[in-house]
Write a structure and sequence with these properties.
InterPro entries: Kinase-like_dom_sf. There is one protein chain. The chain is built from ten helices and 17 strands. It is an alpha+beta fold and 436 residues long. Strand 6 and strand 7 form a beta hairpin. The two termini are 35 Å apart.
Length: 436
């Protein structure tokens, strides 16, 4: 089974987002973005957070002094040990941490070491921005490597806190083919910024409102940590799952149908693209092999139009899913016969469909050969509508490789036009003429 290699140095577009593998990370983001009032939290929370801002802004001779000054205040919100500073002994591997919260893992027996090895949060601190040598990901890897049984069952979700002087950032981490992390909160200042916005009703000053924001962040994090306690305690060895860890999105309900279950078979590349089987609901008795794609943007209208004209991959599901914070696009699996070439009838059908797409004011965006599948009769079907959108409004990404066969003169971040689609279709047709 090919899964692709995930490197810690890889760019964000080429590694899977952590939110598709466990719901706790999207829950954190959703709750953090939800409006709140000062009355939602206790007065003790506000007093402790206020003290935290005071102490975080002070100078400390060493990291140990800073950790000692702030530790009990973070404990109020997150639990004892979150900033306790400890040497973690994990099966002969010693890990220096500025804080951690262990979690009981129900996958292991009460007498096994693995029951107590996993941490739901790791904290790394420096005494100031740019000071110290702390790499939370490297330290997580050392722990994860010891838990082979757990890695076969779970993506091992955990939170990482990095405290750099008077600022705090929060990341999520999972283990796939290696450690994959994603930033959830970027450098929240524990020194209030200069007031520049209207103060929300109920707060006496902008500083007090900033205290409220810190309370909200830490309480949302604590809620998610409590949910990880439940998750790990209830872990069991699954009976049948070819791909572990797998995305947590495993059920969808098509129109006029009952729920359809997904069984993930393989991760097709290092990004968020999976081979799966769909069964149940209105589908046939035999499982339907499909492709499940998680993406931040998708041209649903363009895909549905081209599908109605029989030049796109059949859609089983296409919807923005709040539980993962992304589009989930499920299409029937298409396998192109070796040496396939487009038929004259198929090309004419694609030309006409493209004209109709443009008449609707839409563009396809990336009409290169890898995004055109041919069936046994030589009929082309488009399979990737990530860049599709309104003509002259949809744009090429900033990471575009301009030398990868796009129309001459196209630059990164340019608007995509109908003319570009026509040029790309002509190039596609000419590639087969040259092969002959």
């Amino acid at each position: 089974m090919h899964r692709g290699n995930i490197q810690r140095s890889s760019l964000y577009p080429h590694r899977p987002p952590i939110i598709i593998f466990h719901p706790v990370f999207q829950a954190f983001l959703s709750r953090l973005a939800k409006p709140f009032k000062s009355t939602d939290y206790s007065r003790d929370d506000f007093r402790v957070a206020d003290a935290l801002l005071h102490k975080a802004a002070q100078y400390y001779p060493s990291k140990a002094d800073r950790r000692f000054a702030l530790g009990h205040l973070f404990t109020h919100f997150l639990g004892s040990g979150v900033l306790g500073g400890a040497m973690l002994d994990r099966g002969g591997h010693t890990l220096e941490s500025d804080g951690s919260l262990p979690v009981i893992c129900g996958l292991y027996d009460v007498v096994e070491l693995g029951r107590w090895v996993m941490c739901k949060i790791l904290t790394v601190m420096s005494n100031g921005v740019g000071l110290g040598d702390c790499d939370p990901m490297e330290k997580c890897e050392k722990i994860y490597a010891l838990l082979e049984l757990l890695r076969q069952v779970s993506c091992m979700p955990a939170f990482l806190i990095a405290i750099s002087g008077p600022s705090i950032s929060i990341s999520g981490a999972t283990y796939l083919d290696g450690v994959v992390s994603g930033r959830l909160l970027r450098c929240f200042p524990m020194v209030p910024p200069t007031a520049s916005r209207k103060v929300q009703a109920g707060y006496p000053s902008s500083r007090d409102q900033h205290v409220g924001q810190l309370v909200h962040i830490l309480r949302v994090l604590r809620q998610c940590l409590d949910e990880l306690d439940v998750y790990y305690s209830q872990l069991k060895q699954p009976l049948d799952s070819p791909l572990l860890p797998a995305p947590h999105f495993q059920t969808f309900t098509p129109p006029n149908s009952g729920p359809v279950q997904l069984r993930y078979l393989e991760r097709i590349d290092p990004r968020a693209l999976f081979l799966a089987e769909a069964s149940g609901g209105s589908l046939k008795q035999q499982p339907t092999t499909c492709i499940v794609k998680f993406t931040t943007q998708y041209g649903k209208a363009a895909h549905e139009l081209m599908l109605s004209l029989d030049v796109a991959a059949p859609l089983l599901h296409c919807s923005w899913e709040p539980s993962v914070g992304m589009w989930v696009v499920i299409t029937e699996f298409l396998e192109e016969p070796e040496g396939a070439t487009p038929s004259a009838e198929g090309l004419e059908r694609l030309r006409k469909a493209l004209v109709m797409l443009h008449e609707k004011g839409l563009v396809f965006g990336d009409l290169r050969a890898p995004n055109v599948m041919l069936d046994k009769d030589g009929h082309p079907r488009l399979i990737d509508f990530d860049w599709s959108g309104v003509d002259g409004e949809a744009q090429y990404p900033g990471s575009l490789n301009v030398d990868a066969g796009f129309p001459e003169g196209v630059k990164r971040c340019d608007f995509i036009t109908a003319e570009h689609d026509r040029i790309m279709l002509k190039k596609y047709e000419e590639s087969f003429e040259k092969a002959e």
